[in-house]
C-alpha cells in the first residue's frame, strides 16, 4: 500500500557523499594470500584437552578421561586425523572449520534470540540533539550505505591488525603493499608486523537473512536489493535507499521516509508476524511455509533481501540500564525480525544499537562495521536536527507491507507471543561497571587485563558455589582464511588454586604469595590466548574430528562418549569481550539453561560486564554482587 508517491529527487552523487572510505589498498587485496587455519597435531590437542579437564575433575574422573584420551590418541583419533587432513588438502580454498561450523549453527533448532543473537549499543552522541530518533536513524542508514558501497567497490580499508601501528598504519605501508600482487600481499604486510584479517564474512553483512527450514536453516543473500525494511509497532514498511545506479538517496529523502513512518498513528499491530522469528526453528519453518502458502511470499522476500532492518521502537529507555539490555537483547519480539543478518534498533529517546544473527559471521566484521558507522555519524553527520522541519513528503515513496493472515496464522502468532513472553520473563539480567581500574592500570602491573577479568569471573562463581565450572571465552581466528573462532579455556589449575586460596579460611597465604599466584595465572592465560589466536586451541579440532566420526556412521570414540567431554562443552560460564570505546553495552544470553552469559568490556579506564542467567537456576544480580566482591579481593592483593 503506497502512502506517498515519489517524484524525481536530486541525488547526492559526489564521491565524498557516496563512499565512507577511499582506500588505496583494495579491500580484498590480502584475501588470496591469507594463511590457512592450521590443524593442530593430535597429541597437542589431546594434551590441551586434558589440561582443561584437570581443574574440573576429581582424581578418579581424570583417570577415566585420561584412559579415553590415550585410546583415542593411539587408535580412532589417528584415522580421524588422517581423514581431516585429507579433507583439508582437498579444500584449499577454505578452512577445515568453516563448513562444520556453519552447519552447527544452521542445524541447531533453538530459537535465535537470547541463545545466539548478541547485541551492541552505542554510547550517546556528544550533542544530544543528534540522538533524536529521526536524526539518529537517518544518519545510521546513510553511514551504513556508505560503508556498504565502499565495500562493494573494493575501497573499504582492508581489515588489518597492526602489531606496531607506528610502523604499519602508515602511508608507506599502504603504498608498498598495494603494489604487491594479491597472492603474495600477506607476506609484504607481515614484514611490517601487520596481520591482514579474513574478510570473507563481510559479503553477508548486508542483504542477508537466515531462512528457517526443517532440520537445517539456510543463508539467503541478494546483493542486488536496494531497499530498507523498517519495523515500527509491529508494522513493516519499505522504501528504496539506493537508486537505479546504486547511488545513495539524499539525506532529506531518507529522513522524509523515516518521518512518514514515525508519524503513522495506526495502533500497534495486533498480529505482529515478526514475533515468529523468535520461535524454535522447525516451528518457525512450518509457520513460514504456511505464510507463503496463504499468499505472503513476496513480502517475505522483501524482508529477506532488504539491505538491513531498521527498527524504530516507541520505548523510552531513560536511565534504566536493565531495560536497555532487555530492549536490545530480546524485547517482546513484536517489533523484531531476528533472522536478519542484523537489525539496527533506535529507541524513541535515541539509544541505538544492533541485534545480529550469528551463523553468517562472528564479531570481527560486525564490530568493524559498528565502529566505522559510529565514527562516521559522530564526525560528519549527513542529516542535522535543524533540517527536520524542512522535510517534504512529496518526494518519497514509502510502502507498508501488509501480511495476509487467516485464523490459523493469527492463532500461531498469539501463541508465540505468549510463549516468548513467558520465556524472556525467566531471564535474569544485571550489570557491573568498575571505573576505578582499567586496561592501563593492569598493564602497568605487568598483568593481562583479560586474565584479571577471567579470574574475577571464576572467583565470583567460586564465592557463590564453591566450585570451578566449564568456561568458554571466545577468541577470533580471523588471521586465517575463513577462520571463525577458537575457545580459550580460562578455567585453569592456576585460577582454581587462587579461588580456593581466597575463599577458604583454613588456607593462609600472604598477599605477596597470592600476588605471585595471580601473576602465574596471567602467564598461563596469555599462553592459552596466544595458542587460540594461532589456531592451536583444542575445541575446534576435536569438534571437527567428532563431526567426521558422526558423518562416517562408525561407532563414536570413547572420548566423545565420556561424560567429562559432554560436561566440558556444557559451558556454565560463556564469556566474550566486546571492547570498544563506542560500546555502551553489549551481551548475549546464557548458552545453557543453568549457565551465565557474560559480555564484558575492557577500556583504558573502565571495566564492565553484562550478566544474564535464568531464574530458577541462577540469579544474575547475585552473581554481579559476587563479581564486585571478587574484583575487590583481587585488587586488595595486587595493591599491597
TrEMBL record:
<dbReference type="InterPro" id="IPR039551">
    <property type="entry name" value="Cho/carn_acyl_trans"/>
</dbReference>
<dbReference type="InterPro" id="IPR042231">
    <property type="entry name" value="Cho/carn_acyl_trans_2"/>
</dbReference>
<dbReference type="InterPro" id="IPR042572">
    <property type="entry name" value="Carn_acyl_trans_N"/>
</dbReference>
<keyword id="KW-0443">Lipid metabolism</keyword>
<dbReference type="InterPro" id="IPR000542">
    <property type="entry name" value="Carn_acyl_trans"/>
</dbReference>
<keyword id="KW-0813">Transport</keyword>
<dbReference type="GO" id="GO:0004095">
    <property type="term" value="F:carnitine O-palmitoyltransferase activity"/>
</dbReference>
<keyword id="KW-0808">Transferase</keyword>
<feature type="active site" description="Proton acceptor">
    <location>
        <position position="358"/>
    </location>
</feature>
<dbReference type="GO" id="GO:0006635">
    <property type="term" value="P:fatty acid beta-oxidation"/>
</dbReference>
<dbReference type="Pfam" id="PF00755">
    <property type="entry name" value="Carn_acyltransf"/>
</dbReference>
<keyword id="KW-0276">Fatty acid metabolism</keyword>
<keyword id="KW-0012">Acyltransferase</keyword>
<comment type="pathway">
    <text>Lipid metabolism; fatty acid beta-oxidation.</text>
</comment>
<dbReference type="InterPro" id="IPR023213">
    <property type="entry name" value="CAT-like_dom_sf"/>
</dbReference>
<feature type="domain" description="Choline/carnitine acyltransferase">
    <location>
        <begin position="37"/>
        <end position="628"/>
    </location>
</feature>
<dbReference type="GO" id="GO:0005739">
    <property type="term" value="C:mitochondrion"/>
</dbReference>
<protein>
    <submittedName>
        <fullName>Carnitine O-palmitoyltransferase 2, mitochondrial</fullName>
    </submittedName>
</protein>
<comment type="similarity">
    <text>Belongs to the carnitine/choline acetyltransferase family.</text>
</comment>
Amino acid at each position: 500500500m503506497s502512502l506517498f508517491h515519489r517524484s524525481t529527487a536530486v541525488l547526492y552523487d559526489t564521491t565524498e557523499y557516496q563512499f565512507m572510505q577511499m582506500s588505496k589498498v583494495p579491500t580484498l587485496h590480502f584475501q588470496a594470500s591469507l594463511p590457512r587455519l592450521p590443524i593442530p597435531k593430535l597429541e597437542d590437542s589431546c594434551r590441551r584437552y586434558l589440561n582443561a579437564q584437570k581443574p574440573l575433575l576429581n582424581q578418579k574422573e581424570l583417570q577415566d578421561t585420561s584412559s579415553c584420551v590415550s585410546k583415542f590418541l593411539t587408535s580412532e583419533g589417528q584415522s580421524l586425523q588422517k581423514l581431516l587432513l585429507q579433507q583439508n588438502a582437498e579444500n584449499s580454498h577454505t578452512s577445515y572449520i568453516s563448513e562444520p561450523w556453519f552447519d552447527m549453527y544452521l542445524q541447531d533448532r533453538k530459537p535465535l534470540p537470547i541463545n545466539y543473537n548478541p547485541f551492541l549499543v552505542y554510547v550517546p552522541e556528544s550533542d544530544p540533539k543528534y540522538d533524536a530518533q529521526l536524526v539518529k536513524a537517518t544518519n545510521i542508514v546513510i553511514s551504513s550505505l556508505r560503508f556498504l558501497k565502499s565495500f562493494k567497490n573494493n575501497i573499504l580499508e582492508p581489515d588489518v591488525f597492526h602489531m606496531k601501528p607506528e610502523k604499519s598504519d602508515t602511508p608507506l605501508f599502504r603504498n608498498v603493499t598495494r603494489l604487491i600482487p594479491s597472492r603474495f600481499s600477506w607476506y609484504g604486510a607481515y614484514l611490517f608486523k601487520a596481520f591482514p584479517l579474513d574478510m570473507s564474512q563481510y559479503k553477508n553483512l548486508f542483504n542477508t537473512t537466515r531462512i528457517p527450514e526443517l532440520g537445517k536453516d539456510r543463508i539467503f543473500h541478494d546483493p542486488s536489493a536496494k531497499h530498507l525494511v523498517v519495523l515500527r509497532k509491529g508494522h513493516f514498511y519499505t522504501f528504496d535507499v539506493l537508486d537505479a545506479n546504486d547511488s545513495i538517496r539524499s539525506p532529506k529523502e531518507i529522513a522524509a521516509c523515516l518521518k512518514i513512518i514515525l508519524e503513522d498513528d495506526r495502533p500497534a499491530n495486533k498480529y505482529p508476524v515478526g514475533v515468529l522469528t523468535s520461535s524454535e526453528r522447525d516451528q518457525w519453518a512450518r509457520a513460514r511455509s504456511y505464510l507463503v502458502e496463504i499468499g505472503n511470499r513476496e513480502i517475505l522476500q522483501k524482508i529477506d533481501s532488504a539491505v538491513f532492518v531498521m527498527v524504530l521502537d516507541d520505548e523510552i529507555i531513560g536511565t534504566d540500564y536493565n531495560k536497555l539490555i532487555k530492549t536490545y537483547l530480546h524485547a517482546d519480539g513484536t517489533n523484531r525480525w531476528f533472522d536478519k543478518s542484523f537489525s539496527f534498533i533506535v529507541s524513541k529517546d535515541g539509544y541505538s544499537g544492533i541485534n545480529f544473527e550469528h551463523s553468517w559471521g562472528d564479531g570481527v566484521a560486525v564490530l568493524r562495521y559498528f565502529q566505522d558507522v559510529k565514527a562516521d555519524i559522530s564526525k560528519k553527520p549527513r542529516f542535522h536536527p535543524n533540517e527536520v522541519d524542512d522535510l517534504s513528503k512529496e518526494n518519497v515513496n514509502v510502502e507498508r507491507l501488509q501480511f495476509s493472515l487467516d485464523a490459523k496464522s493469527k492463532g500461531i502468532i498469539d501463541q508465540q507471543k505468549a510463549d516468548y513472553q513467558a520465556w524472556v520473563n525467566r531471564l535474569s539480567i544485571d550489570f557491573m561497571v568498575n571505573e576505578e581500574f582499567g586496561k592501563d592500570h593492569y598493564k602497568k602491573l605487568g598483568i593481562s587485563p583479560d586474565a584479571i577479568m577471567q579470574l574475577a569471573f571464576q572467583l565470583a562463581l567460586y564465592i557463590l558455589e564453591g566450585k570451578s565450572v566449564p568456561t568458554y571465552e571466545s577468541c577470533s581466528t580471523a588471521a586465517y582464511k575463513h577462520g571463525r573462532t577458537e575457545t580459550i579455556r580460562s578455567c585453569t589449575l592456576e585460577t582454581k588454586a587462587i579461588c580456593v586460596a581466597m575463599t577458604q579460611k583454613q588456607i593462609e597465604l600472604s598477599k605477596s604469595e597470592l600476588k605471585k599466584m595471580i601473576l602465574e595465572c596471567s602467564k598461563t592465560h596469555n599462553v592459552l590466548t596466544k595458542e587460540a589466536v594461532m589456531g592451536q586451541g583444542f575445541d575446534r579440532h576435536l569438534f571437527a574430528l567428532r563431526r567426521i566420526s558422526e558423518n562416517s556412521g562408525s561407532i563414536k570414540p570413547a572420548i566423545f562418549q565420556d561424560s567429562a567431554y559432554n560436561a566440558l562443552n556444557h559451558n556454565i560460564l560463556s564469556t566474550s569481550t566486546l571492547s570498544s570505546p563506542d560500546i555502551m553495552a553489549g551481551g548475549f544470553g546464557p548458552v545453557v539453561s543453568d549457565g551465565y552469559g557474560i559480555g564484558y568490556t575492557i577500556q583504558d579506564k573502565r571495566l564492565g560486564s553484562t550478566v544474564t542467567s535464568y531464574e530458577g537456576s541462577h540469579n544474575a544480580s547475585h552473581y554481579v554482587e559476587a563479581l564486585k566482591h571478587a574484583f575487590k579481593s583481587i585488587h586488595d592483593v595486587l595493591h599491597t
